[in-house]
Amino acid sequence: MASASRPLRGKRACKKIFWAVFPHACFILSLVIYAFLGALMFSHIEGNRKVNLSEEYRKFLQSLWYISRNLSDNMTENEEVFKEQIHGLLNTAERDWFVNPKDIWTFFGSLFFCCTVFTTVGYGNTYPVTRAGKYLCMLYALFGIPLMFLVLTDMGDILATVLSKSYNEFRKLQSKILASKLCSGSMCNKGDETKSRAHSKVVLNEPLTIMEVLKSQPGVKRKPIKYRNAEIFEMLIARENECSKPARNKSIERWSSCPELARGKTMSRVMENFDKIGKQVEKLDVPIVLMVLVIFVYISCAAAILPNWETRLDFQEAFYFCFITLTTIGFGDTQLEHPKFFLFFSLYIIIGMEIVFIAFKLGQDRLIGLYKKVISFCGEKKLPSKKIYPK
């Protein structure tokens, strides 16, 4: 029986873990599918567009040819004028005149663009040009941004649980270390003696048998001896039968008699998991200094890895780029040479955005608490003092 019950317990444990992980996997998988569909659409629309050389492009080439023709052999005399003319001319140039759309809107390039859209980073170095691409971008962001925030909220619950448990365990360990340092030998011995005495008192004061408990009840004392003995005997038999009953698992009985009830119970638990999204982030209460330290370490790790494939970036530039990305500012002043590698960093971006979001949430709570204290302090100062008049 024991060997047969072990596989059944293992299956139940696997099912429990599966339904517990199912909401989180559902959100992440939905976001991945949404990103891949967007990459296919944008690569088809923007990558296959025709580049029409406009009249502005022809004027740009004519002006460039005119400036180069008027250059004299003596560069020192016309160097400043040449720089001003070239600078003004390049400001009128558009990037689409010199770039092939298929080179930008590859599948991975489009996937990188989709990630910058629903994460609200928006670097600005890649953007739709066609009218259909612009309309599709607005529609894509309309549904992608809420989905991304849902994933962030769900991941935030997991991260908040890990942070709160780690912080509580650290506090417990710290309190134990302080207690062991403060506790001297004599004090500990005295504490042990008092505990043993209290324990012995409790043991002596406890009733030893059920007969003493029954005799102490006033209702039993008033009855005659034979009725009292019969009642005590019946109560002892009822108690013996209650203890001898095997413990039944109600969930197993329902499952064996009616599997639909067990399925409904499982689905109700899954629905409860969906309803609990965002609750752990609200309950999180850790020092803001700890969150700042976590953000610094998290960005520093990425800043040390990123220059391995982005050779133009050093540690400081990579740190700046990761901070601008995780805070969703996205200036676009730092452009990546290999965004394909950065896509494999997408999980890092999601977790980092969640860490920054939790830090902002804690900072917001601290600011609200500070405002409440200031307002209450100012209100107490402005309240007029009550004067007591004699009767």
From TrEMBL:
One GO cellular component term: plasma membrane
Predominant subcellular localization, coarse grouping: membrane
Subcellular location: Membrane
InterPro entries the UniProt entry points to: 2pore_dom_K_chnl (IPR003280), K_chnl_dom (IPR013099)
One BP annotation, GO: stabilization of membrane potential
Residue spans crossing the bilayer: 21-45, 104-123, 135-153, 286-306, 318-336, 342-363
Domain Potassium channel: 103-159, 294-364
SUPFAM superfamilies the record matches: Voltage-gated potassium channels
Single GO MF annotation: potassium ion leak channel activity
Xref: Pfam families: Ion_trans_2
UniProt xrefs under Gene3D superfamilies: 1.10.287.70
Domain of life: Eukaryota
Keywords: Ion channel, Ion transport, Membrane, Potassium, Transmembrane, Transmembrane helix, Transport
Membrane topology qualifier: Multi-pass membrane protein
Family: Belongs to the two pore domain potassium channel (TC 1.A.1.8) family.
Name of the protein this chain belongs to: KCNKI protein
Organism the protein comes from: Centropus unirufus
